[in-house]
Amino acid sequence: MLAHLLREQGLGTTRKTVTRWEHGVVPDDAAQAALCKLFSLPPETYLRVTWPGWLPTSGLVGIQEPWNAEGTINALTTVAEHAIVDRREFVLLMGAELLLPIYNWRLNPGPWLAYRDRGHQVSNALVDEIERLISVRRRMDDEHGGGGILEMLHSDLRFVTDMLKNGRYTEATGQRLYGATAELARLAGWAAFDSGRQAAAQQYYFAALRAAAAVGDHPLAVNVVGFLGIQAYSTGRLDDATQLLEVATAESQKKTPSVIQAMTWARAGRAYAKVGQAAMARQALTKSTNLLNRAVYGDSPNWAYWVDETRMAAQLGRALFDLGDYAGASRELTSAVESCGTKYPRDRATWLGRVAIAHLRTGDIDAGCESGRQTVDLIANQIDSERGMGFLRTFQTELASAGNSASAREFAEYADSRLGAA
Questions:
Q1: Which residues does residue 169 pair with via DSSP β-bridges, in sequence order?
Q2: Model confidence, pTM
């Protein structure tokens, strides 16, 4: 069918050609442009996002289930069994397909009944241990990046989902189980995103949104929608990103602590910066800072421990980077790196990668190479993050085009010695 439609576009595409695409062969520009037209996407979409990340699909698991208690359990079960087998060649939901689950959540925000009267008893002590484990997993992600912990998170999610589906628990215990499942799925989505496995990340995020809705955890659900927005603007789906984050900021005003609102507006600022709307980006980031200043100690959920002034500086720096203000970006991101000290090595690597690129784009090759070396050290010593490597690769590519200076040669030798063929 696809081959027939493409032939109608004037391309001599055969079924064999399409099969080769499905098995890793990248279509040429003419074919990708024709596919954009076929799927009613902006013609430049394939230029912004690497094939096949921009293709629309309804093939993700756990999406079609009804938006209720039974559908949530079925979706969680499916995601807990199958999301981990996803690979980078799988595709992402876009546009209306992506937004439909978000609208389902807004219409049915929960809570639903969370008790079950059959199966083995799930004790409060066991849920205590699960919640402690989730806290440990968050810190592991902070220290090592998503690549090294995704399989652990998936196993954790499968374990807790099995308890939800087959265990016996009270309403109070069930609410805690759903909350733990939502946060595990959210963490798994972040780890998959950090590892470059974008379709898997979406599946985990949608599972997290369902689990959060099951117990009416509005702040966590807003956070999940925010992560979907981050994924969208990071993969070039800018219209999706702004729509998702406009939903998140609107919903953040309902029963949501100031810290979560601040985080959500900061993400919206990033999305506006990505589409070049500088005034709206600055307005959103200013609102974010003001909300953070009004935050009440102890009023935010434990998963928001990382939202502070340093993160706001980093959000501003990344927005300035996207707007092309490389001097401002370097200033804010360097400040954020210094404020972190030895904490958050994965985040420091992504910030320093941007600083290195920013220095290079303002003509300061020596400073760029120094920041690049710090990025290399973090990646070689501590973290497993495809995003961190992505910024480093961009720096290396641009450095190679900037001329054969002594600093550039020394950096290339240093990176090769520390990272090899990575």
A1: 116
A2: 0.82
